[in-house]
């Protein structure tokens, strides 16, 4: 009944409402520190300024963080897990494209050895050897670490979202009943998640 801007909202209007009512409303639902996420999204998505792919990856990560925070309150009739899945798909696609471009750049520049070392990430690399490597190797290694962390974070967030949805359906005291297809989607998603976890485990073993 008391809103800074009435619906229907554009993205810009929605972010303005978040900022306006943050202390009185949203700050009690999610960590108040996430206001910086709202401000970052507003600054980059609603001002018309051009953004590069690195900024897009950061914004997608911030969006995932925000959606995950709100998942502790509700799945919002299945809308939130769906939104998280779509944002995560965008993030993974961008990560894969960046990885492919990085690989092409390294191989076309005659840095096959550096690329192999990046994949292996051998902990026994000596300081003398590190000094001889090109700066692009260190950038690639840092990106690789970020990608690995992103995958593990995505797995953890997905487990949380699906667990919330499943336990809500198993709760006999739950007031709302969601469609059966949503439960089936969660079950199928968990099967894919198990396969992804096995792939990650095998990768870590290697």
TrEMBL record:
Q: Which GO terms describe its cellular component?
A: nucleus
Domain of life according to the entry: Eukaryota
Signal sequence extent:
none
* InterPro entries the UniProt entry points to: SWT1_Regulator (IPR052626)
> What sections of the protein cross the membrane?
none
Protein's name according to its UniProt entry: SWT1 protein
């Amino acid at each position: 009944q008391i809103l800074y801007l009435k619906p229907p909202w554009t993205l810009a209007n929605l972010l303005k409402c978040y900022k306006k009512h943050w202390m009185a409303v949203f700050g009690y639902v999610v960590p108040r520190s996430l206001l910086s996420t709202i401000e970052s999204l507003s600054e980059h998505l609603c001002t018309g300024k051009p953004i590069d792919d690195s900024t897009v990856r950061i914004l997608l990560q911030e969006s995932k963080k925000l959606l995950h925070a709100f998942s502790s309150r509700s799945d919002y009739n299945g809308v939130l897990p769906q939104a998280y899945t779509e944002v995560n798909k965008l993030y993974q696609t961008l990560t894969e494209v960046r990885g492919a471009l990085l690989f092409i750049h390294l191989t076309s520049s005659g840095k096959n050895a550096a690329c192999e070392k990046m994949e292996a990430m051998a902990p026994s690399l000596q300081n003398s050897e590190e000094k001889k490597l090109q700066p692009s190797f260190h950038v690639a290694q840092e990106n690789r670490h970020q990608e690995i962390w992103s995958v593990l974070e995505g797995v953890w967030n997905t487990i949380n979202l699906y667990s919330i949805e499943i336990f809500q359906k198993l709760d006999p005291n739950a007031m709302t009943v969601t469609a059966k297809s949503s439960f089936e989607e969660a079950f199928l998603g968990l099967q894919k998640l198990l396969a992804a976890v096995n792939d990650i485990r095998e990768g870590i073993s290697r």
